[in-house]
Structure formats: C-alpha cells, structure tokens
C-alpha cells in the first residue's frame, strides 16, 4: 500500500512539472509581447505621429496669432521704414515660446519699451503646440522638466539648504544689479525695468535665465549650469519666507526709496515742527505785550 501511494505521488509530481513549464512559457511569451508592443517601431511611429500633429496644430495657431509680426515661417518681419515688427524665431527654442506666451507677454498687446506681463491668451495645450512648432524651425532650449526648476524636488532638507546658500551667492553676483537684493525688481535704462521675482513661477524664472528675454542677459548652461539655475530659484523661493528685519521695507527698493522717505517725511516733520514753534512763539509774545499794556 505504501509502495502504491509513493508511485501515485511520483506520478502526480511528474504531471505537475510539464504543466508548470507550459504556464511559465505562456507567461514569458506574454511578457515578451508586451515589451515588444511598448518598444516596437510602431509605438515610436505613433509617438512621431503625435508630435507631428502637435506641430501642425501649433503652425495653425501661429499663422493666426503670430505671423503678422514674425512672418509665416517665423523668419521675422520689418516694416517699410525698416523698423523691426517681430524678430526671427528660428532657433529660439520651445522654452522661449513657453515663457513669452505663458506669461501673457505674447501676443503683444501694443508696442512699448518693455512688454508687460498679463493674463495668458492661450491654454497650456495651445502653448505647448506653439512651442513644438517653433522648436521645429530650429534647435533651441527646450522647456525644462519639473525636477530642473522646482526646489521641492531636492532629495533632503540639507541638500535644499546647501542649494539656497549656493543660489544666494550666484544671485548676489549676477542678479541684484537689476532685480534688487530682495528680488523686488527695479528700473532700467530706456524705459525698461527688471520685473519682481517673488511672484514669478519657478519655471518661468528658469526659462528667463535660459533664454534671456528682452533686456535680460542670457545665462546658458555653460555660464550657469542647470543645477546652479535651480539653486538660484531655491534662493528666490526662500526670500518669500524671510521676515522684514529692518522694519518698514518701503517696497524693498533700496536707498532710493529710503532716501526719498527721509527727505519727504523726515524733513517735512521737522519743517512742520519749526512752523508750529514759530507760530506758538508769536502768540505768546502778543499775549505778553497785551498784559503789560
């Protein structure tokens, strides 16, 4: 009886082994097919088709909203008097489009010394399509990924603190001449100005450093590395949480506003006090003469 049970057990194990092999083979085939479907040329072709559709959509938007100044192929246009209507967009890259259109500076409402920031005209999907079309005209800076500009993506608080220290050094060296020590911005020659940074989205700060819009210098990755750009943004974000240790900030515009406050308010109070003393002295003298008379 024991011999019979052993024989049946062996037979059962032999039957399970071929069945398990078949199941393992089917799983392997399914996994291989799935990986092939993901990385196959057909998937790549589908991605290329999606990008082509986005470029086509961007061109359609460009012809309606941008070609009047920048030309039908982004080559730029000049008026009859030789004045530039819109610069060439060939080679500016997707980041420049995302910054200019995303901050509402483009399309331009009216010409001026500096284009004003305003509410965006396009939704983000349309902005992405415009950026894809302009990027297809010539190689240029791409729109940065979130981990390139968002300080919250640092791996630890220590890494973020080190980045803030580094970013502060870079900011004080390269940015304070225009944007002020507190990031409040300031006036520039020929009617321009450096905008306030404390209410600017980190992505747009990164793109501004990368593309150098309007009066701003261009800080390529060769001048300031992507890690250093992110450190600058971390420092700017830290300034939002800093209390005003000096009392009244007066807009944080530096010695100009402070000097104006001292002259207008300080001297104004002194002059008013002097006038009050003079008037009070005159009244006292008249009363004294009246009593003596």
UniProtKB/TrEMBL annotation:
Bilayer topology annotation: Multi-pass membrane protein
Pfam families: Cytochrom_C, Cytochrome_CBB3
PROSITE patterns referenced in this protein's UniProt entry, alphabetically: CYTC
Keyword Secreted annotated: no
Catalytic activity, EC: 7.1.1.8
Domain of life: Bacteria
Compartment(s) where it occurs, according to its Swiss-Prot or TrEMBL record: Cell membrane
Transmembrane segments: 260-279
Top-level EC class: translocase
InterPro entries: bc1_cytC-su, Cyt_c-like_dom, Cyt_c-like_dom_sf, Cytochrome_c_Oxidase_Subunit
SUPFAM superfamilies to which the protein is assigned, alphabetical: Cytochrome c
Domain Cytochrome c: 53-240
Main subcellular location: membrane
Catalytic activity: a quinol + 2 Fe(III)-[cytochrome c](out) = a quinone + 2 Fe(II)-[cytochrome c](out) + 2 H(+)(out)
UniProt KW keywords: Cell membrane, Electron transport, Heme, Iron, Membrane, Metal-binding, Repeat, Respiratory chain, Translocase, Transmembrane, Transmembrane helix, Transport
Keyword Zinc: no
Assembly: The cytochrome bc1 complex is composed of a cytochrome b (QcrB), the Rieske iron-sulfur protein (QcrA) and a diheme cytochrome c (QcrC) subunit.
Protein name as annotated: Cytochrome bc1 complex cytochrome c subunit
